[in-house]
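In this section we walk through a basic example: taking a raw amino acid sequence and producing a predicted 3D structure, encoded as C-alpha cells. The instruction is simple. Fold the sequence below.
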Amino acid sequence: MLFAVGKYKLGELHPQCAKIATVFSGGVGSCHQELCGGLSGGLLVIGSLYGRINPEEDDVLVKDLGKKFREQFLKEFGSTKCEDVKAWLIEQGMEEKCDKVVERSAMMLMNLLDES
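The resulting C-alpha cell sequence is shown next.
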C-alpha cells in the first residue's frame, strides 16, 4: 500500500520506507491478530502527506483523514483486523491473498486523498 499509493502521491520513496512498513505486514509481524496491513499502509501514506514534524504543528487534517480512511475500510471489509479481513475474502469467494484488499483499499485511499 505504501508503495502502491505513496509512490504515486509522494514521488520516489526512499528504500528505508519499505523497511519501516514491513513490520505491519500480516497484521503486525504476520500475527494476523492486529491491524490489517492495507489499513496501516494507507495510514502511513496519510501521515507521510499530512503528518507533522513537531508538536506545535496543526494535526487536525491528518487525524481527520486517518479517521475517515479507517471508517471506510471498516465499512468495506467489516473489520480492521487482519484475520477478519482474510475471512471476509474467503466469504466473498476470493483467494485468501491480500492483493485484493490492497487494491480496494488503495482505491478508497486515492478517492479520499483526491477529495481533500
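Looking at the output, two observations stand out. The chain has a mean pLDDT of 92. Residues 37 and 107 are 15 Å apart (CA to CA). In the next section we compare this with other chains.
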